[in-house]
Amino acid sequence: MSVDLVTRTAAELRDQMSAGEVSAVEVVGAHLARARAVDTEINAFLKLMDEQALDHAADIDRRRAAGEALGPLAGVPLALKDILATAGIETTCGSRILEHYRPNYDATAVQRLRAADAVVIGKTNMDEFAMGSSTENSAFGPTRNPWDTDRVPGGSSGGSTAAVAAFAAPLGIGTDTGGSIRQPAALCGLVGMKPTYGRVSRYGLIAFASSLDQVGPIARSVTDAALLHSAIAGPDPLDSTSIPTPAEDVMASLDRGLDGLRVGVVAEFMGEGMAEGVRARVTEAIARMEKLGAEVVDVSLPHVSYGVPAYYLIAPSECSSNLSRYDGVRYGMRVDGDTAEQMMARTRAAGFGAEVKRRIMVGTYALSAGYYDAYYAQAQRVRTLISRDFSKAYERCDILVSATSPTTAFPLGEKTADPLAMYLNDIYTIPSNLAGAPALSLPVGLDDQGLPVGLQIMAPVLAEPVLFQAARALEADLGFDPTPRGPNAVTAPS
Amino acid sequence: MSAPAIEQAREYEAVIGLEVHVELATRTKMFCGCAIDFGGDPNTRTCPICLGQPGTLPVVNRSAVEHAIRLGLALGCSISPSSQFHRKNYFYPDMPKNYQISQYDVPICVGGELEVTADAGARRVGITRVHMEEDTGKSLHVGVSGRIHGAEYSLIDYNRAGIPLLEIVSEPDIRSADEARAYLSELRAIVLALGISDAKLEEGSMRCDANISLRPVGHTVFGTRVEVKNMNSLRSLGRAITFEIARQAEVLRSGEPVVQETRHWNEDAGATSTLRVKEEVDDYRYFPDPDLVPVEPAAEWIEQIRARLPELPAAARARLVDRRGLAPAQADVLVGAGLHRLLDAAVAEGAPPIEAANWLANEVTAWCAENGVDPASAPLQGEDLAELVALVRDGTLSSKLARQVLVDVLEGKGGPREIVAQRGLEQISDTGALQAAVDQAIEQAPDAAEQVRAGNDKAIGALVGAVMRATGGKANPQMVNQLLRQRLTGG
Amino acid sequence: MSLTVDEVRHVARLARLALSDDELEALRGQLADILAYAEKVGEVAVDGVPATSHAYPLANVLREDQPRPSLAAEDAISSAPQAEDGRFHVPRIVGEQA
Q1: Residues of B whose CB is below 8 A from C78
Q2: DSSP letters of B299-354?
Q3: Is A123 annotated as catalytic?
Q4: Which of A134, B275, B334, C25 is the most buried (most CB within 10 A)?
């Protein structure tokens, strides 16, 4: 029974529950049990919320029995990245500095999930303050990839992706600043989507780089990802950068297929630096799209090679300011000192990990007197050029495709000593963050080591419907099985 | 000022610019919905946003923008078609995010001016900019001294954090302490007229820092600038600038350079002292706040605001002189104190302008000064003032009693007629009622009465005084005089 | 691109990070490498190109001046590492600011 439940998609569980075949308490209980069993292997959760989740599920069952109208995700378990504020529940952002911090408000995305009657079963591990591409930068130990527990799940939303990949939850919430949803989704064989900047409220999303951060869905199917996106997207008066128009309907066009869609292959993303196994699956996937009726064209984004350098000025600059508030005065940890300044400096030195300190230092330097124009302002102008490159490409096509990540999952520890090598994981994902445009990673097969490969599909600002439509068509054709398998894979559900 | 300093002031010219902060009287804070409500318990006017909790975001208060535009228009500034918020990054415990949201290279208002009149005549002071920002919290320093130096630790209250501020930066066009005072006073009068702040210097809802440098008369290059803080009244602004000009002149005269620094005005010592020396340029790492979007006020909105601007102080002064017939000096006093609106209200209730103005300029102002009340918010209605003037005019009250009645009105004991009735203060002008008191006074002071009969007119004063005492001051003194003369000299 | 340890120390002070000499030395090289890489943006000609911060252009996002409930005093300070009399406690503040 419970094996059956944990391998179901969110859409299936929702239908089973509404048909009265299974209760929310049973569904949530099965996933909590699976999460507990598997977490010793993968360390995906920072906190499992058994009691709250089961209470919530029981409440949903009660309301269903009473004939009340329920939300679109009623009773569906969900793994929530620990970067979103949850009232009264520890929200650590993967950092020692917030180890016991309990916000007194809920993030807007969390409120929306509650309104959809989704059940949060736990808060998931992540690179500290979302800075990283492997979830090794968590203060609470690394998360492991369910496909090979000696490898990283990607990051920074590695906890949510590992949880969904390991069947601990059908749905996960991640955040994506430079690829933090799409890259771990690719490395774990999942669907992950970064919405248009401003489409999902950032209120309650603990800021890393405010002009790039977005909340988005992680799931084992395109339909599930679209359902979850629909639940969280829409305007929010608490976020000044939230897009004020109602969210686009991504469900209605889901099954319209690829026929007639113009698919652009980004030349700059097909060059050196990509693993052969990745290139092979991506090339095959593009060929499948063509077979399914898409018109494939080659396009160029001439400035895209400046994306990573621009990102590594913009993101650290914004983070250096965003993270100033962690000073030991109002919340979080404190290391005492003789003076306020000493207390703050000691608290921050002890509370932040190496990568966070590194980025704060880079950002502080880049914003300091005399460098602003050459660094931050220059990077923001390059950002404009990259957006223009995208606009130009979209004159000739509806969507763009590339690999999500240049490699499949790499072994733990392989890149921790070389920050720049780690940064290059995001070479294909960063440009969409800079352009504020939506992008999705779809699993398109395994490399010769049996590790999942992700195809990135990109679309213009607010063109989420076509993104899901294309992904759904390719998914149906490929029939990728998201069950982790192989010698080092996580224990299968039993 | 000492003689040598005056001599130096002839050689050097002071160049002064003022930075004024005004706390806006909006209902809620700049970026969150916390009510602005002074005097609450610590940290009871705070929320996750103004406490800078992780994940929270700012949203701009429409009224604060409107207030900024209002002041900009009143100062003749142009309103930027697109202005931006920046983050000013520095660590300080009373700042919840360790950055202040402020405006930097594109403030909402730029390039206005303010004409001020000081002893040396009129001067146009340029307004560089008016920008919006958020206030910080307040630190309570705990320790023997109660001040920041020598404190053992500090306790922070964030009720004030996030209250909207306007910063008004002048050009370095001011040349004396007197002009600086006139500028601040005029700016305050404008802010009060616009109703955008209560602008209390003593309570910190209006704050003024002065940048002061000296240069030889006739030179155009600026000297080294010193920033002086902590002037909590117009008077202390004047004193601080006077002191600082003398101090810098003395330094220069001794051949030393003026050190670029921030100095603290100590009101008790009557002197400035070093607060911190600027060893290096402040590095605030300004950048556009990515959590906020530009403010682009539509032309129609600006015109709507312009159309609703109230009468500004300069126009009010001109009107009081031209239409109400007041002396320019008195018009200055009333407008400066924000009392002209009360005058208008009293006149509307039928009070003769000059008499009502006299009461305001003398008695009301004096009472406010004694009681530490801002004249602009004096607890008096135009109706009350009109009634008081009428009671004096019709002889019901003597001027002396009227002053007592006014005090009662200001103390909230009721309207003038009410108080007169309650206290039985009507002036006794009835001959019958006064006759007995007059007879008694003559009887009790036969010597004085004899002298008056003998033609010593001055002696009548003692008799009038006796009658006034006997009637508790209520007798109409002219009538008493008349009755005494009738009795004693038949005149 | 190279940095001195003193420059790195100055940046650490601005950022309020009490770093050890070893950390400063390690960061000196890493910062130089990262900045040298990031400086590639300087190769791009951007004359007349405006800066983008948000892909979807918005302006005048304004909130009506209507009060919303504040936190209860005990909730405001509930996460404070140290509090006294409803206020947040900090060690003595030296100097005005830096």
Answers
A1: none
A2: HHHHHHHHHT----HHHHHHHHHHTT---HHHHHHHHHTT-HHHHHHHHHTT--HH
A3: no
A4: A134
Contacts with B, A 340-399, CB within 8 Å: 340-341, 344, 364, 367-369, 372, 376
Strand partners, A455: A403, A442
Three-state secondary structure call for residue A80: strand
The secondary structure of chain C in percent helix, strand, coil, rounded to multiples of 5, reads 40, 10, 50
Start-end of H helices in B359-459: 365-371, 382-393, 399-410, 416-423, 431-444, 446-453
On whether the CB atoms of residues B12 and B213 are closer than 8 A, the answer is: no
Determine whether the interchain pair C88/B65 forms a contact, defined as Cβ–Cβ distance below 8 Å.
no
- Dihedral pair phi/psi, residue B298, rounded to 5°: -70, 150
The 10 Å Cβ neighbour count of residue B462 is: 15
The torsion region of residue C35 among left (phi > 0), alpha (psi -120 to 50) and beta comes to alpha
Identify from B155, B196, B282 which residue to disrupt to test chain C contact, counting C C-beta atoms within 10 A and taking the largest count: B155
Query: How large is the ipTM?
Result: 0.97
Choose, out of A321, A356, A380, A434, the residue to mutate when testing the contact with B (most B CBs < 10 Å).
Answer: A321
Ramachandran region, residue A189 (left: φ > 0; alpha: ψ -120 to 50; beta: rest): left
Is C84's Cβ below 8 Å from some Cβ in B? yes
Tell me the C-alpha distance between A133 and B390, whole Å. 84
Q: Is A180 a catalytic residue?
A: yes
**Subunits that touch chain B (at least 3 Cβ pairs < 8 angstroms)?**
A, C
Pairing of strands B121-134, B164-170: antiparallel
User: Using CB atoms, which chains have 3+ pairs under 8 A with C?
Assistant: A, B
Q: List helix spans (H) across A306-401.
A: 307-322, 340-351, 354-367, 378-393
Main-chain dihedrals φ then ψ at residue B368, nearest 5 degrees? -65, -45
Q: Which of A23, A95, A133, A156 is catalytic?
A: A156
In the block, tokens 């049973």 appear at: A26
Q: What string of pLDDT tens digits covers the 491 residues of chain B?
A: 333 343 444 589 999 999 999 999 999 999 999 999 877 899 999 999 999 999 999 999 999 999 999 999 999 999 999 999 999 999 999 999 999 999 999 999 999 999 998 888 899 999 999 999 999 999 999 887 666 677 889 999 999 999 999 999 999 999 999 999 999 999 999 999 999 999 999 999 999 999 999 999 888 889 999 999 999 999 999 999 999 999 999 999 888 999 999 999 999 999 999 987 765 667 999 999 999 999 999 999 999 999 999 999 999 999 999 999 999 999 988 988 889 989 999 999 999 999 999 999 999 999 999 998 888 888 999 999 999 999 888 878 888 889 989 999 999 999 998 888 888 777 777 777 788 888 888 888 888 888 888 888 888 888 888 888 888 778 888 888 888 888 888 76
Indicate if A402 belongs to the active site: no
**Contact by Cβ (8 Å): B70, B25:** no
Contact residues, chain A, for B293 at CB < 8 Å: 240-241
Q: Are A399 and A263 within 8 A, CB to CB?
A: yes
Q: Which residue has the tokens 């969507």?
A: A399
Backbone φ and ψ for A174, nearest 5 degrees, come out as: -125, 180
Contact B54/A325, CB-based, under 8 Å? yes
With contact defined as beta carbons under 8 Å apart, do A200 and A206 qualify? no
Closest to B287 (Cα-Cα) out of A366, A241, C10 = A366
Both tokens of B234, joined, read: 């117009």
Token pair, residue B201, equals: 């210097």
Sheet holding B138-142, edge to edge: B138-142, B153-157, C87-91, C83-84
Nearest beta carbon to residue A325 from set B96, B154, B285: B96
- Cβ atoms < 10 Å from Cβ of A338: 10
